Each structure stands twice: as C-alpha cells, then as structure tokens.
C-alpha cells in the first residue's frame, strides 16, 4: 500500500512551521491572559497608559516580569506599548476591563483556576477514554464541585453570564416573542436572559428554573431590571421534571453541557408539560459540517473536557429531537458563535 504525502516547497514548509509555532505560542497566550485578567491590569489602564513599574506597584507584581508579559501580549494586539515600558489599552485589551460591555475578564480568570486549567491539560484523557477530564482531575463532575465551592461557583456564573450575554442579546433581537404569555428559562442561572426578555415584552411572565443553590441569585438581577414582579424562581433538576405550561421554553448554553441521553431526557420532560403550540428555543453553537471554521468546534472541545456534553450539528439536533418527541422547526443564525434552534411537538 503506497503512502500519500503532501508536497511543499521549502518556503511553504517554513510558512507552515511558523503557523505551527503560532499554535504553540497560543498555549502561553492563554495562560498570560488568565494571569493578567486575575490581577486586573486592564482596569488600571482605564484612565490612560501607565508604566510597567506603576502597574506592578498597583497590582503587587514583579515589574520586569509584568513588562515582559505585556510586551508579548502587545505583539498580538492585546495592549500597546505606547512608549518604552509604558502600556495602554487596545480594543482587545479593553474587553478585559471589569466594567467593559461584554467583559471577558471573568472568563479568563476562570480559565486560569487550577480546577479548570488542569482539566484542559488532560484532554488526552478524554481522547483515550471518552470521559470528561474534569471528573478525572477533580474527583467529581463539574456542577457537584461548584456546589461545594461557592466562590468558584460565583466566578463560574459570572464568567458564563459574560460569555453568553452578547449571544443572548442577539437571540432576543433576532427572534420575535410577541404574544408569548409564559416563558420558562431552563437552566436560567441568575436570570440575565429572563430579565432581558421580560424587559422587552412587558405583557410576558417568566419562570427561571435552575438548581436550588443557583436560582436564588436571579432575584437581584431581575429586581435591578424592574421585572421581578413578573417572574417566578423555581429550584429543581431538569433531569427529573420542569415547570409546566410554558408557551416557550428557552435553553441557553445548557443543552451543550449534556450528553445526548440527558439532552433527550430534558427535552422529553419539556415535551410532556409544554402548552399546546409551544416552542422550544435552544441557544447553542450550531456546528457546520466539514472543514468550515467555526468557534463552536472549539467550544465542543471545552464541553468534552468539562462534561459529557457536546456541541451539535443540525443533523445531530434532529436526531435528539426525534427521540424526545419533537421536530426541528427552524434555525436562526446569529452574529456570534451560537444560533437559535427552534423545536416544536412532532
């Protein structure tokens, strides 16, 4: 049997090697982003550039080491060296500010914590066994771990809220919910999606449904949005049952955390109790087939490392829906990694 090889010129080979070195450097870039997010460098630069020495003093850091890290990050467009050893914000660096719209500071802080970082480092375990690296590294599944570590659970919820915020806003803008009387948000966490929806639709009432130790956090968010009087907070497990009678059930960045079997269970539970004519709106990455680049293909690796979940193609959604007594109605693409995937009763 003959072997097939890829033929390249020496110049092409060198370009390919440089590309691979960029991938190699990406590992360190992720660690640097986490470290810089943790000490809040971008927050200190909100009023203008500062020297590495001044930033070190404000963050309790070693000045020369901080300078070297910022110099490397600036070469990728995260911060800019405006003069020798003095740095300012760039549009990329601005996203690391705590108060920036769509802030990703907590996302990178979370990524840098041992319980997360060590899970990603064990992706090889996932490849060998088909099991989540998180459980292997931390001795229990992720949400059981978070329930026992309130500070990490708070950081996780903040990071996920920040990461999902733009996608959720895009989904609300793209999909019309006029006429919906009762919306149930499954895995609604601290109520960010529900507060945005109820703010847009003043005649609607909503139910935020999540684990008993999570859902109380939604009261503050809903109250600040001025919609708590139209919302109900319900604690429970969506793998057992879900609140009944919704005209629409939203599941935002939850289904991709679940195995196909658990996804079928939650969808079946919704199918049993949803009102006649109701819809299920899933906000998740919708992975294209083939080699097409898509952020969801890397989000899927996150799911593989942290849980038994997966991001799905349209074909894979159809398979799951059929087993839950649902059918695909439509998909609405968003200007983000995620889409709105709509299912109705079969």
Automatic annotation (TrEMBL):
<protein>
    <submittedName>
        <fullName>Methyltransferase</fullName>
    </submittedName>
</protein>
<keyword id="KW-0489">Methyltransferase</keyword>
<dbReference type="InterPro" id="IPR036388">
    <property type="entry name" value="WH-like_DNA-bd_sf"/>
</dbReference>
<dbReference type="Pfam" id="PF08100">
    <property type="entry name" value="Dimerisation"/>
</dbReference>
<dbReference type="InterPro" id="IPR001077">
    <property type="entry name" value="COMT_C"/>
</dbReference>
<keyword id="KW-0808">Transferase</keyword>
<dbReference type="GO" id="GO:0046983">
    <property type="term" value="F:protein dimerization activity"/>
</dbReference>
<dbReference type="InterPro" id="IPR016461">
    <property type="entry name" value="COMT-like"/>
</dbReference>
<dbReference type="InterPro" id="IPR029063">
    <property type="entry name" value="SAM-dependent_MTases_sf"/>
</dbReference>
<feature type="active site" description="Proton acceptor">
    <location>
        <position position="256"/>
    </location>
</feature>
<dbReference type="GO" id="GO:0032259">
    <property type="term" value="P:methylation"/>
</dbReference>
<dbReference type="InterPro" id="IPR012967">
    <property type="entry name" value="COMT_dimerisation"/>
</dbReference>
<keyword id="KW-0949">S-adenosyl-L-methionine</keyword>
<dbReference type="Pfam" id="PF00891">
    <property type="entry name" value="Methyltransf_2"/>
</dbReference>
<feature type="domain" description="O-methyltransferase dimerisation">
    <location>
        <begin position="21"/>
        <end position="96"/>
    </location>
</feature>
<feature type="domain" description="O-methyltransferase C-terminal">
    <location>
        <begin position="121"/>
        <end position="326"/>
    </location>
</feature>
<dbReference type="GO" id="GO:0008171">
    <property type="term" value="F:O-methyltransferase activity"/>
</dbReference>
<dbReference type="InterPro" id="IPR036390">
    <property type="entry name" value="WH_DNA-bd_sf"/>
</dbReference>
């Amino acid at each position: 049997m003959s072997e097939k090889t890829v033929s390249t010129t020496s110049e092409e080979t060198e370009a390919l090697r440089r590309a691979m070195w960029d991938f190699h450097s990406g590992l360190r870039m992720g660690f640097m982003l986490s470290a810089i997010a943790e000490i809040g460098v971008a927050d200190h630069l909100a009023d203008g550039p500062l020297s590495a020495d001044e930033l070190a003093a404000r963050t309790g850091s070693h000045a020369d080491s901080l300078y070297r890290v910022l110099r490397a990050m600036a070469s990728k467009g995260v911060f800019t060296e405006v003069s020798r050893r003095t740095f300012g914000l760039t549009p990329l660096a601005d996203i690391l500010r705590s108060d920036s719209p769509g802030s990703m500071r907590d996302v990178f802080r979370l990524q840098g914590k041992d319980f997360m970082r060590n899970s990603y480092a064990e992706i090889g375990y996932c490849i060998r066994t088909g099991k989540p690296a998180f459980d292997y590294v931390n001795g229990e599944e992720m949400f059981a771990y978070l329930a026992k570590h309130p500070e990490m659970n708070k950081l996780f919820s903040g990071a996920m809220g920040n990461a999902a915020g733009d996608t959720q806003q895009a989904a609300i803008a793209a999909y019309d919910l006029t006429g919906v009387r009762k919306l149930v948000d499954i895995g609604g966490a601290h109520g960010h999606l529900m507060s945005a929806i109820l703010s847009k639709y003043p005649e609607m009432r909503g139910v935020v449904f999540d684990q008993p130790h999570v859902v109380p956090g939604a009261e503050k968010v809903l109250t600040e949005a001025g919609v708590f009087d139209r919302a109900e907070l319900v604690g429970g497990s969506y793998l057992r049952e879900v609140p009944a009678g919704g005209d629409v059930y939203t599941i935002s960045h939850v289904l991709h955390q679940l195995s196909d079997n658990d996804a079928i269970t939650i969808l079946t539970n919704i199918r049993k109790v949803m009102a006649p004519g109701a819809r299920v709106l899933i906000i998740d990455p919708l992975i294209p087939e083939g080699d097409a680049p898509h952020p969801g293909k890397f989000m899927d690796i996150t799911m593989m490392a942290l849980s038994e979940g997966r991001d799905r193609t349209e074909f894979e959604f159809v398979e799951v829906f059929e087993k839950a007594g649902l059918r695909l109605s439509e998909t609405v693409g968003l200007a983000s990694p995620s889409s709105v995937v709509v299912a109705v009763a079969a």
